[in-house]
Amino acid sequence: MFRRITRARPAQTSQPSRTFDPDAPETSGRTARLTDFAYLGETDIYLDAGCQSLRPQPVIDALAEYYTQYNACGGRVKYAWGRRVDAEVADTRRAVLDLLGLSSRTHAVSFTLNTTYGLNLLLTQLPTGRYQRVLTSHIEHNSVFLPTIAAATRLGVPRIVLDRAPDGGLVYAPHELDNAVIVVSAASNIDGRLLTNLAALVDDAHARGGIVIVDAAQAIAHSAALLRGTGADAVCFSAHKMYGASLGVVVATTVLLRSLDISFLGGGMVSDVREDSYDLVPDDPGALLEPGLQAWGEIIALHAAITWAKRVRLDGLTPDLFIERMSRRLFEGLRELPGVTMVNAAASPVVSLYVDGQDSHRLAVFLSKSGIMVRSGYFCAHHYLKEQLGLPPLLRFSLGLHTTESDIDRALECFARLLKGLS
Amino acid sequence: MFCIAAFIVLLFMGAVSARYRRYLSKAWSCTIRRVTFRPCDTTFKQDVKDHLLAPIAVRAPAMVRPASVALEVLAVLVILTTVWSGYTVVKSGLNLYVYGTCNKSDSASCSLGAEACSIPVETPTFAESIVAFDVVGAFGNEFSSLGETISALPARFRDWKAADYLPEGSSYLAAYDEKKETALEVIDPGCTFCRQLFNNIQEAGFDDKYNLTYIAYPIAGTDGYKFENSLLVTQYLEALKLQPGSANAADAALDAEEVPLDWQLLERIFTGENDKGVSFQSRINSMDQPQVTALLEEWLTEFGLSPEEIATVADTAASDEVAGIIAENKEIVETDIHTVKIPTIIFDGRRHDGVVSVDGLN
């Protein structure tokens, strides 16, 4: 498949100086940007990868290739283009399971719109009477926080909101996990805190009849190791935060999927239909969350993204190590600026802060004028940041593999100059 | 304030560019909240403000704070200017409707109304009062003027009858005919637009259809009279009306063919020219009083008055009786007719302010 992508790259797309060779480790100079992001303008400093990562050229090419060379529906046609789509989609499902170190015998992969959609698909179809409570944590953003409110109401059970330890671990008493639906994020979209006790949480939950659904939107790109081989019942994430095209992914155990009270239905989910009844597909539990036609091109591009992230090397470093190095540089640089209050306790690809007496939205607009793109506000975590911590709107810098040290240095320089002038 | 100012600015910019129209609904929503004393959408306000300040922040961050204050001040100014403009438009419109001029205190400056000589208002303008640090007076006079205009609105709908405003001893151009309606014009002998109206009246044969009479009203100026010799001419006109045998309302029927002396004098002023082609009205306006007196008396001689009769006219013109008549006429013009434009002519159920064209007279 890799060779097929390389060979079929459309000639008319903007080509980086280097072509993508999956067999050769990719490296770059200390300050040079990866050529896979060569389309990025000289003055564009994109520091909002926490919202959506930039797509490397091979991902863009894979998407373009689908649209220009075999734009067919998957899962329902017999002609060559369709068969190729089916093969590519199957490859993507395998690549996702491989990324998480999971087996197709126990897990299935479903594609949807985004992480929020994935979580809602699961939570809105959990069977009633099976669970005693819904658990989540204060730090969650709205894609977890809101669906758990709705789920608890629908299931008629209490919802308990727990704390997270400074290291990101969920703070809970074992009895709280009794027959509980636990929905938590693996990495915070505010400060990058990781769910360090994920494995223990899963074990404890399973021992007490609970299930664990993980929001891996922020973790999947640069902390996938935390999720490898996870025993969680479901992991939801977004391809667009891991260098893929816009797409949601749900990886769930077949047991969980078969237990769902499927009520969101459509084509591709049934083996037979009668006037007043239908039969769900018996041997494809992943399809239970995929009503109707899917985003075939985006699914195929996800495979290209996973492959790219696995192979790419930056200054000889793996993506995780590279991001770690860049995170430290950003964190240290921001921490030294006068007037800045860091929300992060430690370096992370996602760094949030605020400046006393300065509005973060205004700072974001001002930085934007210098070509520096950062996020401002509460990042869909209003409850935690605004209600619980009582913080003003924040400024968030988040890194991706397109980021260079000079990007960080220039952002720090502009930010420092701005703060000095505004103070 | 900023939201409202942004709405005002976007309203104009949106009219010429679709790019700004997308922000209009946000600005409108914000404005509605503001004027109903609810909090504005601070996101919109901040977005607009921040984007305006961003170029300054890049070049000179230290200037952001003063620039931000300047924007707020500018917003207040935009609102004040807009409110004042709106007020001025409404007030001018009302004035135009009621008085035929958008500027009541200087009607000649309003190009939307008919041409006329304005009656200056002695009340200081808003700007003059402000310059004199009389803020209370500025607003007081302004709103009093508006109130006056509003209170005069019903007069606009009134069925105007010239007979209601006739002074005693009115003089008619042609013999008074009960079958005809009466038309009354208010004129200043020195006003060039009165001359124009007089010529239009002649051209339209207006006096064939109406019993045409007039009130001579010398327009007062800031120092004396607007046209220096108008009072003297008016005194002679009134004196002529008082002479035995004059063709006023009471005895017009006695001699239907005779044009009254005062009308002859008016005709000479408004239609006559000297040997150099200069109108007599212009000459009178530039002469000193003895010259005007000599000219008038020369004309009276031409009209057939004896030296004794002319002396009597001159004495009468300077009398208290004539002064009283002129004062009464002034009262009629300023209080009853309440016009601010000269000439004014009442006929056909309406009060026409300024020059009326030949077509209009027909």
In short:
The complex is a heterodimer of chains A (423) and B (362). Chain A is an alpha/beta fold and 423 residues long.
Features:
heterodimer, A: 423 residues, alpha/beta, Aspartate Aminotransferase, domain 1, Aspartate Aminotransferase, domain 2, 7-stranded mixed beta sheet, 4-stranded antiparallel beta sheet, 13 helices, 15 strands, globular, B: alpha+beta, Glutaredoxin, 6 strands, elongated
Describe this protein's structure:
The complex is a heterodimer of chains A (423) and B (362). With 423 residues, chain A is α/β, with parallel strands linked by helices. Chain A folds into 2 domains: 1-12 and 21-56 and 315-423, Aspartate Aminotransferase, domain 1 (Alpha-Beta Complex); 69-308, Type I PLP-dependent aspartate aminotransferase-like (Major domain) (Aspartate Aminotransferase, domain 2). Helices cover 36% and strands 15% of the residues of chain A. In chain A, helix 6 links the parallel strand 5 and strand 6 (211-215). The longest helix of chain A is centred in the N-terminal third of the chain and has 21 residues, at 80-100. Chain B folds into 2 domains: 1-98, no CATH class; 159-361, Glutaredoxin (3-Layer(aba) Sandwich), CATH 3.40.30. In chain B, strand 5 (344-347) and strand 6 (350-353) form a beta hairpin. Residues 248-254 of chain B have low confidence and may be disordered. Chain B: InterPro entries: Thioredoxin-like_sf. Chain A: Residues 45-410 form the Aminotransferase class V domain. Chain A: GO terms for molecular function: lyase activity.
